[in-house]
Amino acid sequence: MVAGYQGVDTWIFDLDRTLYTGPFKWERRAFENFFQYVETHYGVSKEKAAELDKVFSQRSFYLKGWLEELPQFDIQHWWDQIDQVDASDVPVCTLTQKRLHDLPGNKVLFTNGHPSHADKFLKHLGLENHFDEVIAIDENDIRQNRFKPNPDIYHEIIKKMKTTAQKCVMFEDNLHNLETAHNLGMGTVLVNQPDCYRHLDYIHNQKDTFTQWLEEHMK
Ligand SMILES: [Mg+2]
């Protein structure tokens, strides 16, 4: 029984900053590495890289921006570097493992991360057997704009899961990704964000953490 969510048959989850809580130190390590990486491999100073990355992230998916800025940018090489960043301090939650397992319905992991990142984190979190589908993003997807918040890929998921948007709920820390979900007719839950977004019409529910949502809605 999922209180307040009758008729939902598909739950869609972002990975980073959604299925685990902060303080997200591994992310800081990864992105400090990234700016150093861009300086070393492409001659863009760390400071300039940080500036550009901020612009790209506001506009779209950050790697799409880098591909446009540096057409020779080797995404796979960068992903190999990310995969080596220590993430052993990312909190593992046994309550999340148990309650997510017990959540009735289809579960889809939908991340703008790359496939080996999703594998690494799901294993670390003890969630590798919890999802019916894992949608991660490869280089072709980025080149073809097949990533959140582009609605096309949401439609593909709805079709794949043989459901309708009205029967889906999406969990995210990213506002843009939830806005698309809402516009398509999905339910939305914002997690790991400050309270100031509560008034937005596309935020249907907000919790400090995903675990809190599980605790409150799975009685
Ligand atoms: Mg996220």
Give a brief outline of the structure:
With 219 residues, the chain is an alpha/beta fold. Helices cover 47% and strands 11% of the residues. It has two domains: 10-20 and 91-217, 3-Layer(aba) Sandwich (Rossmann fold), CATH 3.40.50.1000; 25-84.
Sequence of secondary-structure elements = EHHHHHEHEHHEHEEH
Indicate the CATH topology of the largest domain: Rossmann fold
Shape: globular
Number of domains: 2
Rg value: 17 Å
Largest sheet: 6 strands, parallel
- The CATH first-level class of the largest domain comes to Alpha Beta
Distance, first to last CA: 7 Å
- Give the total of beta strands: 6
Low-confidence residue ranges: none
Oligomer: single chain
Strand order, main sheet: write it out.
3-2-1-4-5-6
Examine the secondary-structure arrangement and name the CATH architecture of the largest domain: 3-Layer(aba) Sandwich
- Which cofactor or ligand species appear? magnesium ion
Tell me the helix content.
Answer: 40-55%
Comma- or semicolon-separated keywords:
219 residues; alpha/beta; Rossmann fold; six-stranded parallel β-sheet; 10 helices; globular; binds magnesium ion
Q: Can you describe this structure?
A:
- The chain has 219 residues and is α/β, with parallel strands linked by helices.
- It has two domains: 10-20 and 91-217, 3-Layer(aba) Sandwich (Rossmann fold); 25-84.
- It has ten helices and six strands, in the order βαααααβαβααβαββα.
- It has helices at residues 25-42, 46-59, 62-69, 75-84, 94-102, 115-125, 139-143, 151-160, 175-184, 210-217; strands at residues 10-13, 106-110, 133-135, 168-172, 187-191, 205-207.
- The chain has a six-stranded parallel beta sheet with strand order 3-2-1-4-5-6.
- Strand 4, helix 9 and strand 5 (187-191) form a beta-alpha-beta unit.
- Helix 1 crosses helix 2 (46-59) and helix 5 (94-102) packs across helix 10.
- It is globular, with a radius of gyration of 17 Å.
- The termini are close together.
- The mean pLDDT is 94.
- The structure holds magnesium ion.
- Magnesium ion is lined by residues 14, 16-18, 173-174.
